[in-house]
Structures
1.
Amino acid sequence: MSSSGDPTQLDGQALLELQNASAAKIQRYWKALQLRRLEARESFCRTLSTLVQNVDWNCFGPDSDFLRQLLFFFNAKRGEDVDMLCKICDILLLYVRSDGDLVTLFAGGVDSSRVKSVVVYRLRKLAFICLLSTRRGDFESCYLEWSYFVYFIFNCVMFDWASSEIKPIPFHQLLEFAVCLMNPNFQWSCEIVEYLQMKKVNCFFRGVIGALLQSERHTKYLDCSSALSKILTLVASHVGNYSCHCSSVDPRWSFSSQILSIPSLWHNLPDFKKAFCSNGFISNYILEIASCADVLPTDILANHPGQACLLANVLETATWILSEPDFAPESRAEIIGLCTSLLDGFPKITSPIDRTYVDGTIPIDNDANYYLDVDLQRHILTLFQHLVNAAVSGILSIDFSDSAGLSSTELQFVGSISFFLHGMLHSSITDGIMTELVHTTEIVPALWNFIKSCHTNDKWQFFSKYCSQLLPDAPGWLLPLSIFCPMYSHILQFMDIVELKKSERYVSLEDLPSLVFILKEALWELLLTIPLQSSSLQTTCSPLDNKKMLTQVLKSSVMTGLCELLIQLEKWNNMDQFVPPIGFCSTKAISDEFASQALIVGTHEAEIIRLAPFLVPFDTRLEIFQLRLEADHLLMGNSRQYFGSRTLEIRRTNLLKDAFNNISLLSAEDLKGRIQIVFFNEHGMKEAGVDAGGIFREFMNIITQSAFSLESRLFKETADHLLYPNPESKLAHADHLQYFHFLGVLLGKAMYEGITVCLPFTIFFLRKLKQKETFFNDLFSLDPELYRTLVNLKPKNSDDLSYIYFIAPDGKELFPGGARMHVTAHNVTTYMHLVANYQLNCQNRVQTAQFVRGFQQLIPKEWTDMFNEHEFQLLISGSLSLNVEDLQLNTNYSGEYHMDHVVIVMFWNVLRKFSGRDQERFLIYGDDPSRLPLASTCFNQLHLPPYQTEEQMHAKLIQALSSKSGFDLM
């Protein structure tokens, strides 16, 4: 061991001995200190009652030993200390109420700046022990444990050692004095609040409010809520205040994290809500709320996540602010932006709310992270509606008729609302809110007025500046249309024809042409600007890349929404025209090469036809369809040459069965190949003629008329003589499903060969043939009377509906137990849609599926997707009206006939005098002249005899159109 005395030169054993000796010395010193402290405290306590009884104003000055000892020895866990503190608070509150100045009192009458450090220390220490006395421990604690503990304090008692009486803790009194100590007029109020923040005072407030929740039924303890509201208001005023110099607080213990995430905060502290909102505190808390979103307390029940409670409280605050007309518009936009950011960061949840939508579906997601309390989610959904109503009121207050358009402030406000609504519609917490929003708020008409105004006044480029989350060159209409399209589509989906005609609430009938124009022009621009093959989106921290990603996602979403809405509007237009059909076509030029380019996969033309065919004129789409047929015929050309034609022998007396037996044996290649027909008459004799195409055309016409007739019992007719599958077809044919497959093949073959057949189908069946969904309004095409009956149920009350059960018109239950459930005013909409679903989808599901399978053997789905139902019917049957003048101009004559020949003039006169039905039949059979007098069997030419009178010619033509005797007519 070195004798130098330098500890660094000591060996290990000596160093250990030195350390142990030092530790023992410290322990002895500490014990002595604790003993001295205990003795001093006992001495203080012995004179405590005397000190309190003799206390005067001099006891609070900077030289006062009384106050110094009180602050030093005070123990919040000891009842006598708290009792003494309460008496002191009584004295000081009396002083304040007598217009006394606490700062002057604590400064001892001298200049307070000279004794600042002492005064500040004592004021903040006194405020701290006042709050601590209500807690009897540390501020930081679990919310539930804290609330139950404070609840115990509220409802339990404390033993008074001096009087041996039981009395409650004066909770309200302590808070009131703490309010006085944090008076904002004090020049050192920031130091006091900063000290309390350092001591995690917000955790204390969190526990106290939790106790209030537990003791709501004990109203005698709720008088403290007023004092609590006051002190919370004082603390809240120190965040984001430019005149305040408080240090920032750890987000975990911040006001936003600990207080604003408490369930039902504003319900329990309405005075605090009023002060918080009216003073505009929320504007100061935007940054703090954003910083604490990921560190919220997890001390509440699992079904009350902090994110949900914080969102609910912020939504309620925002609603209050937006309802105040004097609140600055810029601040409104900031508040809405805060709600949007909270919504965007909200975790995925599963809702326990058992909602039944009109389509009978319930949203379920087993991968969700949170299960919200039922009442909490309902409360949040209600707050969303209130906030939207408040926001809409602000939008509706804008004068859209002003030719100057909207101001920058108004554009900024609408921009923030638009982003909020977009986030709300795509958040899991708001699942199912669409119906409530469109029916309980005025958001749709407000958005439409805004869209119309911006379009009319050319304001879109200015609005883009207020969509900061998007790229600068993003179209201004992108964000509003991302909200308007799905909402208005939702309305149209559940609106009936009567409501559309009468409703002026959403978009008036007069505005529908303008709406169609705006939507189609926006869609055309998107289709031409969105990359055909987007690269995969990558997560990045770059703000510019985030803007690119959001803009790209929004464009794709809007494009889908525009397509769906325009398809719905086109469907409505077909039922009750408000714009000419050409009005849905884009005004942009369609080049001569459009049809050929549309056949090439990956071109913009192909994408337009795939996504928005209605933008392209019908003639161009018809050309594309014909080019596809020609290309497929060319592809099958080699097969036709290799396999040759197929010859079918058909007995006219057994037409349907022979056709079914023969065609059912053909492969897909045979069906696309050439088929020749040999007819046998009723005598079993082979009919004369060689089929060069005309006989096959006749066969297609007569077999379709026979197979789809009511006599076959495979199809039924509506009151308007429109065809649809017979739900009871199995009673007529044991192999009825094979027959439906055969009928689908027949229709597909007719379209594949360009043969029009007179088969007027119902709209709902045409939709099913295109594999599109059917909705309530499609019931009108099947049963207009049932449709009107169901529509008339809407305005009825529950008493008027008591005789109706959830039973289909044929007596079957719409769901298990439906025969025992009454229809009421609350579930009548569900009943209506269930009936429509049963009639349209359930009754003939298997028949339709087989028909579609047969049809698509020849006509792929993508070939017919570019036509709506009415256009599809034109492909099947041709035009239902005959343009005699057009036919006359395009007719060629041979032999002795010419356009001025007396027989030809007579022929056109007779044709003009035909009834509409006869003109339709002529149009059908005119494409097959073998059905007309002296027609050529092989070459589709009409040999018109030189009739002497118009009457004779009329009779012969009608006879030929009505006859089923084939080529032996003349």
2.
Amino acid sequence: MASSDGAGATAPVAATLVGALDQGTTSTRFILFDTATGSPVASHQMTHEQIYPHPGWVEHDPLRILECAEKCIDEAVATAGVDVATVKAIGITNQRETTVVWDKSTGRPLCNAVVWLDTRTRSTCETLRERIDVERVKKLCGLPISTYFAGVKLRWLMDHRPAVKQALEAGTALFGTIDTWLVWNLGGRTTHATDVTNAGRTMLMDIHTLDWNDELIAAVGVPRSCLPTIRSCAESYGEMAGTVLKGVPISGVVGDQQAALLGQSCLRVGEAKSTYGTGCFLIVNTGDTPVFSSKGLLTTPAYKLGPASPAVYALEGSIAIAGAAISWLKDNLHLIHTAHEVEGLASSVKDAGDVYFVPAFSGLFAPRWRQDARGTIVGLTQYTKAAHIVRATLESIAFQVMEVLRAVGEDLRSSGVLEVAGGGNAQASDAADGFSSSDTTSFIREVRVDGGASVNNLLMQMQADLVGAPVLRPVVVETTALGAAFAAGLAEGVFDNAESLRDKWYLDRRFAPSITPAERARRIGKWEMAVQRSLGWIEQGERDAEDSEEEREK
């Protein structure tokens, strides 16, 4: 694959291509994929600043994100020597929930974007829980009331940013997640739209009708007039108004985790993928009917591949801190210089020395949803050294995914979805690999993995050990971009149908469990002890960064 790293000239690319703009929490990338093979042929990536005004707050500059997006497109095309006529469509995938409000007259953001893992809305959520029916909200939108979701962030901005409040009252404000911001700008400021997967993360969309719900809008207290139109994941969102790809259709929009589900070809009921990025996100396909979790998971649209196509749903477990914990080791503790050092340092010790790290920097997401939790390291002794802490950090990622997988399996079993998916054959399949389904912490037959941290072999082996099921890593681990490209290609007729995408998924490595059930149970038990010690650190009503900011504004 050609990348703009100054390595030299590249022969012109003549294949039919589809592009994907992948706007993530820490960086933006544009990748061009060969539609015949699903392989990337060119890419360019840029990082953007993480803004931390107060503890628990995270912001991005929307204009910088737009600048990175446009530059990545131009650089990827130039580096590969692409004939722009071969690029048939562009898909957009994005960090979900991150909230932008801008003025439709000037096109300028009214404040920085509030990022998905930002926790400033904790008091707002407490107020909402006191005056609305939490279970009713969950039945309507599939989500709990949490700092995580975009509708609550919009409400906070209304209450705390005068410019946002004034623009909303004047009818000049537009709201959107990052996909909407990019579509509006890249398409020449003509289309204010989002797709079902992103709208489903606002706490404002009806999970059944896939449209904005007036009851939810009134409950949160935001104006409907600022909300974008909801569309499918694979249809026209306009054409590129600028960059070297001017005139190329924008034909796909999918939230990042659902895009990865597509990119992993998890198109059948019961198939699951786990993406390891800043956070970690596990999604399992539940078919054409939403399954409501009793185990703290989110009910969410998986995809809708065309205006007339049926929606497919999923259960999702969202983990706030995964790769971000590695960044913390590097940037805050200075235990490593680069993320690439983690595997070697962690492998230099045989285990974590009975050290357990719960990275609850912004509380715990699925399946616990404990906003009162905070980061905790337990088991430290004079024997402990940096390598033990680094290894415990890797294990913390695998433990969190294990918890989500266990919850997914229990929900699927109780809902009957596993029977529909043929889950009754799991034991025979597992036995052939030397272990039975009774040894596992979930009822999932296998987990497909992707994202930056999935290249860490030690982490993937830890994951297989703790889940008790095979972990499959594909050749193309950046499947988020691949999924967005698939959606755009389907809309433009480049691909025949969704099932044809399976032919473009290739296995790189399979990790099988290597520890005994007894050892797995022992480790999980110690992890549970560590988690319990992280809970209750922030008490209800306790003053936090949000309260301090309110006082400064008065």
3.
Amino acid sequence: MAAFCVALPAVVASLLPLLLLLVSWKRWRGPRAKRHVLIVVLGDVGRSPRMQYHALSFVQSGFAVTLLGFCNSRPYEELLQNSRIQIVSLTELQKLPVGPYIFQYGLKVVFQSVHLLWKLICREPAAYIFLQNPPGLPAIAVCWFVGFLCGSKLIIDWHNYGYTIMGLVHGPSHCLVLLAKWYEKLCGRLSHLNLCVTNSMREDLAENWSIKAVTVYDKPASFFKETPLDLQHQLFMKLGCTYPAFKARLEPLDLATERSAFTERDAQSGVVTHLRGRPALLISSTSWTEDEDFSILLAALEKFEQLILDGESLPSLVCVITGKGPLKEYYCSLISQKRFQHIQVCTPWLEAEDYPLLLGSADLGVCLHKSSSGLDLPMKVVDMFGCCLPVCAVKFRCLHELVKHEENGLVFEDAEELAGQLQMLFSKFPDPAGKLNQFRKNLRESEQLRWDESWKQTVLPLVMDT
């Protein structure tokens, strides 16, 4: 292994002059395309909705887009079908089974640097390189370097701070975390333009990092909306083929009648109605990472179950937790140990087109995202609000920029408080005069700005003026 450690830098060093030569040739071969944007996501494109929205908005404004990232999950169909968007797959280096963690991480950074540099120089020079951060190590330096040589302007879209996410795993004083913070702060100043997701982050970037940024709030795409009842029924029937929680508890007397756990289609008229005594549909989405503690939700569900057993007028619950991530197996193991009688928990991975339909069919959303920096907002809540779905969200520093307590949802601090909110919201469910419906009414009347309109007002003027 020692020989390998010595050989690796030598190999990289021998490749760099060739790459530099290619980049220089690329720059002087011809002018960069003024209406071409390179969007870089050093993560899974299919799980990066904001960057997919940016790509579609650039195309709608007359740009051609090359989107580079990992292709582990399927992106939105609209992205795949657009002839002006080219998706370039990046290779993700899997974790090595040998060597200390610092060595493995160093090898990963070297590989990603060389690989990303190669992929970028093989593309047509662009007016802009548009980078998602985090992850920014090593992408910020590589993108700036390519931009410098090719005459492209670097735009960084700050979703969070990468070093704070690393700090959740290793602790804030770990040498890698401190190195990542220094790198992010230094290289973040190299960009031509900076966007960020909250006013709190904009202020922090300016005060502590001397970086001037423009706030571009996440907004729901147009396809996040309330789902008509007939489409809800189709979705429930489809999901019921895979997930028992969506299947009817009792089969209808008329075998020609379609029935799910929540809805029923009349065999003669074809009219879809909600079932009497149906369960409430609770939904949460997650990346199953350290910044979301799902033990809070599980503890609240146990308390809710006990209230039902004690005779409270509460519905059964179907709790759907969507998403992929490193801690999914851990939490699924905890869920399997629960012996709920009135609550069913399922953890599906939904197709991109089914996710907004399910949000638009749910009764309540729950968000357990606690920002590692305290400066970013959960996009899942943005999507839920787009579907006029009220939300219970765990409290953190800048959540007030999105969730208005007692107006479009509720804010809680622990499992006890969440259980009390579930009891209050689902009391006498479904109650047309209840708090849950009042929150939904407030969301309908708020006339939320959608992503396309917001982007044209905030981002488009910036890229047209620079």
